[in-house]
Amino acid sequence: MWVATVPHQPAGPVPTIFTARPNPKLVCQYLPKPKSFRFGAFGIRLRLNKHKVSAVKKQLPELETQKPDSEKLRVGQEKGEGFDLGWLPAFPHVFIASMSNFLFGYHIGVMNGPIVSIARELGFEGNSILEGLVVSIFIVGAFLGSIGCGFIVDKLGCRRTFQIATIPLILGALISAQAHSLDEVILGRFLVGLGIGVNTVLVPIYISEIAPTKYRGSLGTVCQIGTCLGIISSLFLGIPSESDPHWWRTMLYIASIPGFILALGMQFAVDSPRWLCKVGRLNDAKEIIKNVWGASEVEKAIEEFQSVIKNDGSDLDSSWLELLKEPNSRVAFIGGSLFVLQQFAGINGVLYFSSLTFQDVGITSSALASLLIGVTNFAGALCALYLIDKQGRQKLLIGSYLGMAVSMFLVVYAISFPLDEQLSDNLSILGTVLYIFTFAIGAGPVTGLIIPELSSNRSRGKIMGFSFSAHWVCNFLVGLFFLDLVEKFGVAPVYGTFGAVSLLAAIFATYFIVETKGRSLEEIEMSLSSDFMSRDK
User: Fold this and answer.
1) Of 387, 461, 345, 339, whose CA–CA distance to 16 is shortest?
2) DSSP-derived secondary structure for 381-424
3) How far is Cα of residue 59 from the mean position of the Cα atoms in its chain?
4) What angle do CA 99, 105, 106 make, to 5 degrees?
5) What average pLDDT does range 38-58 have in this prediction?
6) pLDDT for the residue numbered 23
């Protein structure tokens, strides 16, 4: 939502992400003690004020004796029985949603090798403009899908929007697989991009709204892992395309299968309890909270939901103009800026050029080079899964960008200074691998996670749509101009610029990002809204 791509084509990343239930550490009826955060250059101090939340202290007898599985897992963990499995009830729903990211990763890699075979068979081989169009039309569709997603999810909820988004994903894959002309391939890729654009916005929103607060970050990182696995799968399946010129059709037919799984799986997944509460389906919302978060969270969560809805209204009638008002405008600024910085920190350019870096040290197989990149990306995502709810979002984001900056400067040093050739190549490889690893730990997953956490319940879909549209625009620009800039100025100045942007991103995260670890979405929203209301008085 979100994500490191393959070396050969400057395609889209993401990430990945997320938020959820009321904080289990709330003391009686009060939120935690006030903590202050500053939105740097604007001189705005956000104070996490005390918001009195009426809590139900008495639990119904039947809830004491008939606890759902989620509550039993939580109680067992508190008594020290085995591992902490409180995340398990939400995991199947998160896993199904992350199939969207698997598809995203698969479609990033599926055109990487076979584009040459496709161009040869359909008669546009050697035309770099048309080859680039086949790849980049995907980004155009993704941009439009991101913009439209907010409106659809507000009206229909996450489950139905997921199922609708699988239609262009499946049709696009099948049309591309059966294509006998350039126009058909372009249409298929556009439809796939449209579905991916919707899903990159939708997955972070869905996971943030169904995941328990304590595990929101870790469950949000699952989508990043899904993207990594999708890329690796497409690379493995693409190996036969080097010897079979028609294998690309099989790969695109295979791309339709996860779409069917996603559509069917969402029929059995839960919908967001927050959305259900907004549309008046309180009993359904309570049942989901009971089964996924635990029976002890039901009344407290519903009261928080209703308090926020009463304060800012249902988002069913929200408009894009509301993004111009505080605090939505500030969150939209942060979301758009994070994605702009993520893309101009150069992840897609580095991945594109990494194949040449590997060739310099004797790794001439593009499949092997891509596999090394994919495994590194996957390893970083696993580290993020473990760290994000322990260290927090801000620390991971700052550390990630600092690591990316150091990595870029290491590569620049290896290229620019007179070193032994073998040492220079080894430092370039180390810098490239370290860059991808540190990106996957923070800049990849946290960027998509923090935006829905800071967004208001009413405008979450539209803020996410705006932020991801900025992502796709910058993604396209980097892919369009990267090689020209390298040819004109050389690798070292371009990589040095990527390192400088990474440092700027670390500074931005230091002053503009508030820590959301361990706080419910409602707690965060009430704190930010209360602060801005107090400033207006």
Assistant:
1) 339
2) HHHHHHHHHHH-HHHHHHHHHHHHHHHHHHHHHHHHS---HHHH
3) 37
4) 85
5) 38
6) 42
Do the strands 44-47 and 36-39 form a parallel or antiparallel pair, or are they unpaired?
Answer: antiparallel
Query: Can you tell me whether residue 61 is helix, strand or coil?
Result: helix
Q: What is the pLDDT of residue 99?
A: 95
Over residues 66-104, the pLDDT tens digits come to 444 555 555 444 444 456 788 999 999 999 999 999 999
Write out the DSSP string of 133-202. Answer: HHHHHHHHHHHHHHHHHHHHHHHHHHHHHHHHHHHHHHHHHHHHHT--SHHHHHHHHHHHHHHHHHHHHH
Cβ(527)–Cβ(46) under 8 Å?
A: yes
d(CA 206, CA 490): 43
Identify how many contiguous H helices and E strands the chain contains and give both numbers.
20, 2
> In sequence order, which ranges of 178-272 are alpha helices (DSSP H)?
182-210, 216-237, 247-265
Mean pLDDT of 118-145: 87
d(CA 331, CA 336) in angstroms, rounded, equals 9
Looking up tokens 């969207």 gives 100
- Element containing residue 47 per DSSP (H, E): strand 44-47
Predicted pLDDT at 356:
67
Residue that the structure tokens 């549309």 belong to = 279
Do 346 and 408 form a contact (C-beta atoms < 8 A)? Answer: yes
d(CA 258, CA 72): 33
What phi, psi does 444 have (nearest 5°)? -70, -65
Query: Does the pLDDT value for residue 530 go beyond 80?
Result: no
The average pLDDT across 246-258 equals 93
- Mean pLDDT value across the chain: 82
Element (H, E) at 368: helix 366-391
Structure tokens at 444: 């990849």
* Bond before 168 cis per omega within 30 degrees: no
* Complete DSSP assignment for 313-358: --GGG--GGGGGSTTHHHHHHHHHHHHHHHHHTTHHHHHHHHHHHH
Instruction: Using the predicted structure, report yes or no on whether residue 515 has a pLDDT greater than 60.
Output: yes
188: pLDDT strictly greater than 90: yes
